[in-house]
């Protein structure tokens, strides 16, 4: 995605979504040039900071174990985005909105961008700073969804748009919780392997 479009999305979300839709990004292009690069950020931060301060609340792991956790988390993110697009499309069908998979993929690929950027602050080993950053990132992602849904899915009825937004928001929160639980489970499993060897 072009940096100007990303900047516009954050500061003028409706105009940013319109600009993005007008550029007609393909699923392949979005996945290759947006999802993959941004998914690297959290995985890389796990690797770079997990051995220094244990990601604030998890025990320290040696480099080789951190690599395993980071790679698995990276793969989970790459899988979750297309699955989320399928879920969004199914929710849209239930709401009598009939988008293409491409439309659903755009929302699934772009809306989590603030959450992908937030882990950069893990360099600051302060749980309060990172809690604030995660909260702001979640609010920004919710805002992107809120403004993106009527634009991407061409919904004129504000009530229908809001109900669909609520359904997508719940699905997105479940996906985020799933990834966090996966991270904790993987971290714990790798840590146990570390202590048993």
Roughly what is the average pLDDT, rounded to an integer? 86
Question: Alpha-carbon distance between the termini?
Answer: 44 Å
Instruction: Tell me about the largest β-sheet.
Output: none
Radius of gyration from CA coordinates: 18 Å
Unreliable stretches (pLDDT < 50, length at least 5) are: none
Number of strands: 0
Short descriptors:
197 residues, single chain, 0% strand
Report on the architecture of this protein:
- It is elongated and about 50 Å long.
- It contains eight helices and no strands.
- The longest helix has 39 residues, at 158-196.
- It is mainly alpha-helical and 197 residues long.
- Helix 4 packs antiparallel against helix 8.
- It is 80% helix and 0% strand.
Provide a brief overview of the structure.
The chain has 197 residues and is mainly alpha-helical. The protein has helices at 3-11, 13-22, 27-53, 63-94, 101-110, 113-117, 127-152, 158-196.
Helix and strand topology:
Blueprint: H1 3-11, H2 13-22, H3 27-53, H4 63-94, H5 101-110, H6 113-117, H7 127-152, H8 158-196
Helix pairs in contact: 1-2, 2-7, 3-4, 3-5, 4-5, 4-8, 5-7, 7-8
């Amino acid at each position: 995605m072009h940096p100007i479009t990303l900047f516009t999305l954050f500061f003028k979300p409706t105009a940013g979504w319109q600009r993005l839709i007008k550029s007609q990004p393909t699923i392949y292009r979005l996945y290759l040039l947006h999802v993959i690069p941004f998914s690297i950020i959290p995985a890389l931060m796990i690797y770079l900071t997990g051995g220094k301060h244990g990601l604030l609340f998890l025990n320290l792991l040696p480099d080789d174990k951190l690599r395993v956790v980071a790679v698995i988390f990276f793969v989970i993110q790459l899988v979750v985005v297309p699955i989320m697009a399928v879920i969004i499309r199914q929710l849209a069908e239930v709401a009598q909105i009939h988008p293409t998979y491409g439309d659903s993929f755009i929302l699934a690929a772009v809306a989590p961008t603030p959450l992908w950027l937030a882990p950069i602050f893990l360099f600051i080993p302060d749980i309060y700073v990172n809690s604030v950053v995660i909260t702001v990132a979640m609010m920004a992602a919710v805002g992107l969804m809120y403004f993106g849904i009527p634009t991407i899915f061409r919904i004129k009825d504000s009530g229908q748009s809001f109900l669909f937004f609520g359904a997508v928001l719940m699905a997105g929160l479940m996906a985020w919780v799933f990834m966090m639980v996966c991270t904790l489970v993987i971290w714990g499993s790798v840590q146990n392997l570390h202590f048993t060897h």
